[in-house]
Every structure is written in structure tokens, then in C-alpha cells.
């Protein structure tokens, strides 16, 4: 197998779907493992990849092993598979709060480790991943794993000390953005727009605004100013958002996520 996922929950399924949609690997080149045989059979039917309830089988047979269990499960899972992981295999971590040093300590030997922080929009090919690697990883190997992650979004290589900040800005942030979209849609319903259409209006406005930032490369403040007509509707909304502390709420919220990741 080219790639094996140990643990197949929300994040692993998003990544697998993204990889399959882009055709980076075929179904036959991917395996995933998890504790429940029934659940894994369902995933196999859903995604078409090989599944197993045997972590060792998935680890032993994969060139690239993605550890996609909860951070609290890492040590247990690594101890289970470590005797089967050779020095040529690449271990990719996606957990918040777990350093490469901690992961290497669980392996108890020199191991090629690539630490990543992806996010769930990988499912639709619009993920964002921060990535770093330890010295045992060859440049060519890092390039290959980067390409795999690029198959479902954008990738930035960062120093490991910045990964906690990546959790705040992109790993966790889809949740904050969904809350914003929900609230915007509620306001649309208040204004008389049917619920279904309200989500389309709100989500498309967020998608379009994000694309404007990425594609024009203009400062977000300048783009905001261009929406605000003098004495118009938008500046009134901006005044209320400032009064209610939107910026401060977002900064405090993202920083809270960063702090949890730092102290995990
Ligand atoms: N959900 C997200 O948006 C993101 C999650 N992450 C990271 O991804 C990892 C997984 O998170 P989620 O997918 O959200 O969690 P999840 O709970 O959806 O998935 C974890 C999976 O691991 C399985 N599992 C539990 N014990 C196991 C064992 N002993 N062996 C094999 N599999 C086992 C569970 O059955 C479950 O399917 C975490 O480390 C998290 O920090 C990273 C970025 C974003
Ligand atoms: O909530 C969490 O801990 C994970 C890490 C980033 C997004 N979800």
C-alpha cells in the first residue's frame, strides 16, 4: 500500500476523500484501520478502500503511515505498531499538541516523522495544512508528502514551534467560520429569506470573500473599505461588529485554541 491511515474518523475520511477525488492514489493503494470491524466495513463500502480492524496490518503494509487517532491515543497506538514500522517508512502525524520529539519517544527509535496540521475542508479539495519534518526525512520524501497534502488543498512548510498557531488559524477555524455562516444565515431568515437559500447566500459570500483575499492579494481592510459606501448599509454593519467586539472575539477564540494545543 502507498498510504495507510491508523484511525479513520472525521479528519482521515476528509483526507482520503480528497486524495481519491484528485486521483493522487487509487483505492487499491490505500488502507485504513480502526477498532470497530463494522465501522471499518462501512467505510470500505463508502470510500472503496481496503479497511481492517488490525492497526498492525495497516502499518506494516504502508509506505506512508498517517496516524489519525485522537492525540490521547497516539502513545498507545504507536506502542502497538512500532515493531512493524521500519526505518524507510514515513510516519505522518496530524494531532494537535503532539511534538515530533514526543512521537519519536513513543517509537523508541529513529523514525521519519512529518508533523502536519490539516483541516476538514480537505474533503472538498480546499484544505489548509501546516507541515514540518524531522531530520530523518529526506527532501524528496518531504516533497512527496507535501504533494499528497496538496492534492486536497494548500500547504505551507512552517517551523514546528508555529504548529500551535496553525491550529488556531486553520486547523480549528472551520468551526468558527461555520458559526459565522450559521449566524449570517439566521439573519437572512430574519430578513425573510427561506432557510435553504439563506445558507447558499451566506456560504457563497464567505467563499467569494476568501477568494478575493487569496486571488487579489489585496489587504483585507482595503477590500472591506471597497464594500462600504459612504453613509451606506455596510458601514453601519461594520460599526455594530466593532461595537460588539467581533475582532477581539475572533482573536481571543483562536488564541484559546492555540493555548490548548500548546498545553496538551
Ligand atoms: N477534526 C478536525 O477538524 C481535525 C483533527 N485533527 C487531528 O486529527 C486527529 C483525529 O481527529 P478526528 O478525526 O477529529 O477524530 P475522530 O474521533 O473523528 O477520529 C478518530 C478515529 O480514531 C479511531 N480510533 C480510536 N481508537 C483507535 C485505535 N486504538 N486504533 C485505531 N483507531 C482508533 C476512532 O474509532 C475514530 O474513528 C486528532 O489527533 C486531531 O487532533 C487535525 C486537524 C483537524
Ligand atoms: O479540536 C481539535 O482538537 C482538532 C485539532 C484541530 C481541529 N480539530
From TrEMBL:
Q: Which UniProt keywords apply?
A: Amino-acid biosynthesis, Cytoplasm, NADP, Oxidoreductase, Proline biosynthesis
The gene from which this protein is expressed is proC
- Write down what this protein is called: Pyrroline-5-carboxylate reductase
Q: What does this protein do?
A: Catalyzes the reduction of 1-pyrroline-5-carboxylate (PCA) to L-proline.
Any idea where this protein resides?
Cytoplasm
The entry's NADP(+)-binding residues are 6-11
* Positions that bind NADPH: 55
Any GO BP: L-proline biosynthetic process
Catalyzed reaction equations: L-proline + NADP(+) = (S)-1-pyrroline-5-carboxylate + NADPH + 2 H(+); L-proline + NAD(+) = (S)-1-pyrroline-5-carboxylate + NADH + 2 H(+)
What positions belong to coiled-coil segments?
none
Q: To which species is this protein native?
A: Anaerostipes caccae (strain DSM 14662 / CCUG 47493 / JCM 13470 / NCIMB 13811 / L1-92)
Amino acid at each position: 500500500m502507498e498510504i495507510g491511515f491508523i484511525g479513520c474518523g472525521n479528519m482521515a475520511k476528509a483526507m482520503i476523500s480528497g486524495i481519491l477525488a484528485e486521483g493522487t492514489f487509487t483505492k487499491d493503494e490505500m488502507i485504513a484501520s480502526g477498532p470497530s470491524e463494522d465501522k471499518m466495513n462501512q467505510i470500505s463500502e463508502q470510500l472503496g478502500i481496503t479497511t481492517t480492524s488490525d492497526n498492525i496490518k495497516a502499518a506494516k503494509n504502508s509506505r506512508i503511515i498517517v496516524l489519525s487517532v485522537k492525540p490521547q491515543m497516539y502513545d498507545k497506538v504507536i506502542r502497538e505498531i512500532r515493531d512493524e514500522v521500519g526505518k524507510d517508512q514515513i510516519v505522518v502525524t496530524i494531532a494537535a499538541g503532539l511534538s515530533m520529539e514526543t512521537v519519536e519517544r513513543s517509537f523508541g527509535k529513529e523514525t521519519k516523522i512529518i508533523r502536519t496540521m490539516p483541516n476538514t475542508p480537505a474533503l472538498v479539495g480546499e484544505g489548509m495544512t501546516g507541515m514540518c519534518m524531522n531530520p530523518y526525512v529526506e527532501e524528496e520524501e518531504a516533497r512527496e508528502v507535501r504533494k499528497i497534502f496538496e492534492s486536497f488543498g494548500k500547504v505551507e512548510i512552517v517551523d514546528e514551534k508555529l504548529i500551535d498557531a496553525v491550529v488556531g488559524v486553520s486547523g480549528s477555524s472551520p468551526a468558527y467560520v461555520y458559526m459565522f455562516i450559521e449566524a449570517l444565515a439566521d439573519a437572512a431568515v430574519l430578513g425573510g429569506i427561506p432557510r435553504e437559500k439563506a445558507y447558499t447566500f451566506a456560504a457563497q459570500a464567505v467563499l467569494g470573500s476568501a477568494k478575493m483575499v487569496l486571488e487579489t492579494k489585496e489587504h483585507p481592510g482595503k477590500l472591506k473599505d471597497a464594500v462600504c459606501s459612504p453613509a451606506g448599509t455596510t458601514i453601519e454593519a461594520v460599526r455594530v461588529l466593532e461595537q460588539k467586539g467581533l475582532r477581539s472575539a475572533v482573536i481571543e477564540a483562536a488564541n484559546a485554541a492555540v493555548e490548548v494545543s500548546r498545553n496538551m
